[in-house]
Design brief:
Oligomer: heterodimer
Mean pLDDT of chain A: 85
Mean pLDDT of chain B: 93
Number of helices of chain A: 1
Strand content of chain B: over 45%
Largest sheet of chain A: 4 strands, antiparallel
Distance between the termini of chain B: 44 Å
Strand order of the largest sheet of chain A: 4-3-6-7
Structural class of chain B: mainly beta
Number of strands of chain A: 7
Chain lengths: ~100, ~280
Amino acid sequence: MIIQLLGLFLLVGWGAAHAHTPLFDCFDNGNETLTCEGGFSDGASAEGVGVRLLDQQGKVLEQAKLDARGSATFKRPGGEFSVVFDAGAEHQITVLGDDIS
Amino acid sequence: MFPRPLAALLVTAVASLLTAPATAHFLVVHTPKTALLRGEDLPFHLIFTHAFAGGPSMAMDRPERFYFSRRPAAGEPSEEVDLLPYLQAIDWQSEDSRVPAWRATIPRNQVRSLGDYQFVVEPAPYLEAGEDIYIQQFAKVMVNVGGVPGNWSETLGLPAEIHALNKPYANWTGGVFRGVVLSDGVPVPFTQIEVEYLNHALDVDNRRFEEQGQITAPHPSLEAMVILSNAQGEFSFALPKAGWWGFAALNVGPTKQHAGKPLSQDAILWVQVTDLPP
């Protein structure tokens, strides 16, 4: 019985971990800052998910964790950059600075 | 779930049908696209009309309320954002004349965040002179930005409301849409729901509906289709064609009189349907 329950838990846990799609976008606030928001297609919270601001060479300029509303705000860097939403393997999304308006 | 005996429910349903609600009127709350990848300026048109026929349209006073409801995060209460300041009066072609209608452009900075936006129009009661009754249609349209679900399944406490059981912005052609008719939050059993296809595209540049409809119905019952909610107030409808489908639960709101005349408080929900890609 215990083995059966363990098997059921693992199945549910696997489903929960893989059934949702990460979603992410960033906006320019018009005051030299940008705000990024993340979430998941099943409505799961993205609180605590790491977000990294990278320069053209991939160097980390700034990093933060999304707050309870799935949001983080950064100072907009000069030059080319990108923002990475990192919720683990297969759950990473990159937004290019040129696409942030 | 519903403690009233079935007999009382049936009496209520029959009484509702006997009040002969005004039919085929639809408050069209139109924006071109409801499933958005990213936030963008959202144009809206508010036209009180006959949806399948593309008119005649009726004069629409400035709405009493126009807002969206959005839940900032899971577990937080939804918040309302007043959109009345964005309304602009326009005139809309109706047969040989033009009647007052409304447009608005909601700026991207109001709708840039990921999630659901429930747009609501609460119009002033309209006097339907031909039937000597007032009509007030509480209309909802839902927009999603980025695919993150939000409060699409929340009811908003409107006097007359359709509670969506499917996302109104995520429906393939041929899919089934389901909802619950509510009167002040209470399901309404065996009540009449009109279903109409927005058959004439909006020509917003000329502020009229296009003359040519997409469908020629062979029978009036296929223009304004009438279905009934079940004993729990639920209904379902298979969506046969891409575009906009309007659901109107008639005369379900609790207030039955306005300015000394009968009042029909109707619940409207618009559903956008998308063809499967080839």
